[in-house]
Amino acid sequence: MRELKLWLEGLAADQTPDFDECLSRLGRFFPWLERFADTPQEPEWHGEGDVAIHTAMVLDALYQLLDGPAKHLSGSKRQALILAALLHDIAKPVTTRVKLLHGVERLAATGHEEQGASYLAPKLMALPLDYSVVTMILGLVGFHQLPKLLVVRNQGYSRYLHLALNTDLELMYWLERADMQGRICADQAAQLDILEQFAMFAQEYGLWQVADPRTDVLSAVQVKNTPREQIYLDNYAVSELAGGDIVMAEEAIARTYRAASVYGHLYVMCGISGSGKSSWIQTHLADCQLISLDEIRAEIHGDRTCQKDPGRVVHLARDRLKAALAKRRHVVWDATNLRLDYRKILCDSGRAYGALVTLVIFHLDVSSLKANDRNRRYTVGGAVIDDQLKSLQWPSVTEAHRMIVVGDNGKTLARFGSFQEGEPG
Known about the structure:
This protein has 425 residues and is of the alpha/beta class.
């Protein structure tokens, strides 16, 4: 591992390993890399050939950029950018299909961005990387289809802010520059021009080379007399602006005026079995009303592991959630919540009742998950954990008002959003 750590540190400095070297170093951590050479691409969009050839060309293009107009990038940003370039198409081997597009059969890899981030999330934790680098890689891989779409669809500030909350827009620009330069296609010049427009809009909106894209938004709404009320306003202003519900941050002041003084919290857990959700709740959220699907199964069936009648379990849990939210109680929803649609229902319910919604993500590597599972009272087994990993849809920062990321042994890895002193995480 020490040798690998030194190699990864070289990416943060001046090293420029080609695809074959990257594959030899990281193939055992990301087995789908081994399938790149066997994964074809649509010839009209990728005349260069398979995903391995394309990725090699993307890396070469990125190194040229890093030696030229992107020479100012160094350290963790350089490291994250190189690894994102290597891994940006990691899910193409499992998503590439022949599809009928506008009456023509094409090779397409629909959803490879999101699926790639979900595949990478637990595996990246096995590498000796700073967590900020892991976050950057996941954001770049998971959203790399968006820059051109924002321009083509003539999207405004809110969608650029939404993307900026999830990834660094400058790094995304350089990744997509390399992605376009690292291919053979007839419209390459036009595609590169679209990326230049993306960069122009990002700069115009004040979202280029910024440490925190929320800064300008928050500066416009610092009007509350108490920290508790201000935290509520801060998070709602950013969330509603990024969601397109308002066009100016100041609109959130009136929209949250009453709720800011009487709101409850909703904490939504998200994590594989064995990641430490229940222990974290006991430590940090003991004063919250707990809604646990396992506990409800035990209540109904006398066995928390019983999977019979899941609809009844979920229906009862949601009824209890709505009752708690209506009374503005602090409530925590304890379940794996690995799928986006499950989390969306919960987060939308919280917003509908005026709660401040915090997503708590448990981010561990696979070996730690399985070791933790073996050592806990209610074990599910390695096969179940493997199935859960396959169904994982990695959360975005903007799914809830705030996000806390928790690692092994309950360690806080990151927080996104505004928090009051002494809050969990």
